[in-house]
């Protein structure tokens, strides 16, 4: 059974930066799409960023339109860990951020289709003040 442990998050002012980390443990496929979704109060959950881990090919990264150019996802493959560097943060980035994985799927196929991702982390709150 795969488990996801998130860390990072917190509160910063607009224009600031935060870094999230997510480590996966348990048995996974040789390749998996791992990344982040977020959900603000009253809004649907949306894809933020994802990357295929365990694939021997070129590293591919995918981003939601609202974070392109500001957020960067990276991975430490040996540890099944992904990082989300969030720069130039805006108040509209305020949300609960969830780490998740689509086991046995590449991000080309999976992101940002929520129903393909399971399990989910417990979530970490990110709050950006203006």
How far apart the termini lie comes to 41 Å
> Which percent range fits the helix content?
under 10%
Mean pLDDT: 93
Please give the oligomerization state of what you see. Answer: single chain
Which structural category fits the helices and strands?
mainly beta
Q: In order across it, which strands form the biggest sheet?
A: 2-10-9-4-5-6
Low-confidence stretches: none
Radius of gyration (Å)? 14 Å
Number of helices, counting only DSSP H or I runs of 4 residues or more = 1
Number of DSSP-assigned strands: 10
Q: In one word, what is the shape?
A: globular
Largest sheet: 6 strands, mixed
Summarize the structure.
The protein has about 130 residues and is mostly beta strands. The protein has one helix and ten strands; from the N terminus they run βββββββββαβ.
